[in-house]
Amino acid sequence: MSTLLAEFLGTTILLLLGIGVNANTSLKNTIGNKDSGWVLVTMAWGLSVFIAVFITGQFSGAHLNPAVTFGLATAGKFSWSLVPGYIIAQLLGAIFGSWLAYLTYIDHYRETKDEDTVRGSFCTGPAIRNFKNNFFSELIGTFVLVFAIFFIATPNIEIDGEVINFGIGSLEALPVGIVVWVIGMTLGGTTGFAINPARDFGPRLMYSLLPRKNKKPDWSYSWIPVFGPIAGAILAGLLFISLNQVFNI
Predict the structure, then answer these.
(1) In the chain, is it the N or the C terminus that has fewer CB atoms within a 10 Å radius of its CB?
(2) DSSP string across 57-119
(3) Quick check: helix, strand or coil at residue 159?
(4) CA Rg, the chain, in Å?
(5) How far is it, in rounded angstroms, from Cα 129 to Cα 30?
(6) How confident is the model at residue 169 (pLDDT cuts 50, 70, 90)?
(7) How many C-beta atoms lie closer than 10 Å to residue 176's C-beta?
(8) Are the C-beta atoms of 14 and 64 separated by less than 8 Å?
(9) Arithmetic mean of pLDDT over the chain
(10) In this predicted model, which residue has the larger pLDDT, 234 or 33?
(11) Which sequence spans correspond to the domains of the chain?
(12) Phi (first) and psi of residue 75, to 5 degrees
């Protein structure tokens, strides 16, 4: 239960800060909605990952992302029996974190009438709507993230001398945050780089529950930032297994 609580808290912090920067740079009459840009958004998301991982990494490995959990399990570095609990905790944390961000900016949400802008502060969407290419963008971005994490993650939980969990600890928090920042700046321009199913689905669900008229949750697109990242993570895990057989990584 302590590991699941850590995943919940870590994902809550990640989404509170991440949705927070989205709201700050896009909603009406915020102080951050002046001369802000993509570099600020990507930097803030990267640093949000760093903070969330730094706080919770020692307790759960700070996956904070179902794609990371799937990738580590595929590579044999995480028990499949723990996957469902981790994903549920991550999803609940994403919902709660996005709700806290909404409460923080509630006056600005009330003043912002453009539903595309409001939805965009919660969840991702394609710059050009092409499901095949959008799927590939999420796949390749997550592939880079998870493949990099394989070379950063270390054993972090042992029971009776047996390693049961690989994950990200405090020392590895900054490198992972930098990886997320770089992915956002380089590969994030096509879909807004969800690269995390919980990060997109949780806030999208939260947005759909808000007391707003004319909501546009865009559920027809919602499967892309869920299954694209999972596919990319699994491919990263399979490649890591293959390389491990050759180079004994």
Answers:
(1) N
(2) HHHH----SHHHHHHHHHTTSB-GGGHHHHHHHHHHHHHHHHHHHHHHTHHHHHH---HHHHH
(3) strand
(4) 17
(5) 29
(6) confident
(7) 25
(8) yes
(9) 93
(10) 234
(11) 2-247
(12) -80, 0
Does the pTM surpass 0.90? The reply is: yes
Is the CB of residue 18 less than 8 Å from the CB of residue 50? no
Rounded to whole angstroms, how far apart are CA atoms 2 and 60?
A: 8
In the 8-state DSSP scheme, what is residue 122?
A: H
CATH match of 2-247 with 1.20.1080.10 = yes
Q: Is 162 exposed, middle or buried (0-12, 13-18, 19+ CB in 10 A)?
A: exposed
Number of H helices, E strands in the chain: 10, 2
The per-residue pLDDT for range 64-121, each reduced to its tens digit, is: 999 999 999 999 999 899 999 999 999 999 999 999 999 999 999 999 999 999 999 9
Q: Is the dihedral of CA 221, 207, 141, 150 positive or negative?
A: negative
For 35, which DSSP code? Answer: S
Give the pLDDT mean for 42-61: 94
Element (H, E) at 158: strand 154-159
Closest CA to 15 of 78, 117, 103: 103
How many residues can be counted in the chain?
249
Residue found by looking up tokens 């997109």 in the block = 200
